[in-house]
Amino acid sequence: MNRQLDGEHFETVIIGGGQSGLSMGYHLARRGRRFVILDAHDRIGEPWRKRWNSLHLFTPARYDGLPGSPFPARPWSYPTKDEVADYLEAYAARFDLTVRTSMKVDRLSRNGGRFVVSSGEQRLEADQVVVASGAYHTPRVPDFAPDLDPLVVQLHSSEYRDPSQLRDGPVLVVGAGNSGAEIAFEVSRDHKTWLSGKESGHSPVRTGGAWDRVLTPAIWFLLSRVLSVGNPVGRKIRPKILSHPTAPLERVRPKELAGAGIGRVPRTTGVQDGYPALADGRVMAVPNVIWCTGFRPGLEWIDLPILGEDGEPVHERGVVPGEPGLYFVGRFFQHSLTSPLIGGVGRDAEYIAEQIVSSAAKTHVAPG
Length: 368
Fold this sequence. Notes:
Elements: E1 9-15, H1 19-30, E2 35-38, H2 46-49, H3 81-94, E3 99-100, E4 107-111, E5 114-119, E6 122-131, E7 138-139, E8 153-156, E9 171-174, H4 178-187, E10 193-196, H5 212-226, H6 232-243, H7 254-259, E11 263-265, E12 268-272, E13 275-278, E14 288-291, E15 295-296, E16 326-328, H8 345-362
Parallel strand pairs: 1-2, 1-6, 2-3, 6-16, 8-14, 9-10, 9-14, 10-11
Antiparallel strand pairs: 4-5, 5-6, 7-15, 12-13
């Protein structure tokens, strides 16, 4: 798949080789457009392989397929993170998508009428660029994290693999969302565990439970069709969801956390004497801290005036009005709540592909 690209010009450069970038490539390929997908990793699907070992998707396989290729698993099974990685790799091969791996983009700028995509010493030019690098992918930890005692093992959820990485003794898991709950539940088997943060509630349907098959189709319709920018209800609720993107617990419930002996404590607000300090004044003298504090946009490498004060791109359904030819795919609630999901990103990718073809037609750019 790799070939020398430095100095080449493409109609479209797609930045990111995950589900968003591959979906984008699929739809452009169907329309006969010339493009290249750039992926920072040495292998397609690698970000999934690096997640914690016991991770499974929260959506069943029947809702995990990319355009043109159903997920190869029983419809109501929940794929593992390695199965997802292998599926993405096989998808790129099946549709012969042009992917350049080990090419981390460190700057996106413009030179006259063309975009310039830089990766180290390599440089590509493009008429159009699609940023498909993920909704939130740069780990976020509190500013006071470096103040913890050096002997405290601290890991972000993106670095956590399994309990063998931890020292003997208690664990403080900071962040009570799905990642925090699942990781806390796992490490509690061998460690006294505390979960820090506000409860976010839980989904009415347990992932993999008896009611899952009955209610999931309706819930998926709600998330993908009703809670979308194409629906008045979705447009009204979108700003609130964007400002508070915490999702309810899906697989592990508060009752199960309590049953596992996991203690609930308030927010972690600082460091005292080398240990985490809580909002109620307590100090947690623990030898292990796992930060399940989420991710930030991480788009500082875009050297164009298109980011808002929150670091998010200013766009309309993935189209950047202030920078013609620049698009996004896979952003949180780009079109609906399923936009960043494997089974939901295809619709947004198809829409952006149509915008690219329309733009090319206006400027008389031939495919190929």
